[in-house]
Write a structure and sequence with these properties.
65 residues, 88% helix, rod-shaped
């Protein structure tokens, strides 16, 4: 069995094709699945922050009276 070194892998085309395939699978496909969930999570927290800010302004207005 041939010993693999950095230089042999650097010049090996099938190795690069496999690396690109893995990059596509893990970065693109998983990103397409996780990104909408992340956006929904951040939107939920942004809405909570906006509601809290509006409530704080309302309390300030009531205290000024």
């Amino acid at each position: 069995m041939e010993q693999e070194t950095f230089w042999t892998l650097l010049r090996d085309l099938p190795h690069w094709e496999f690396e690109l395939f893995l990059i596509f699978i893990f970065d693109v496909l998983i990103g397409l699945i996780i990104w909408p969930l992340f956006q929904r999570f951040t939107k939920h927290h942004k809405d909570d922050d906006d509601k809290l800010e509006a409530l704080e302004k309302r309390i300030e207005q009531l205290e000024k009276r």
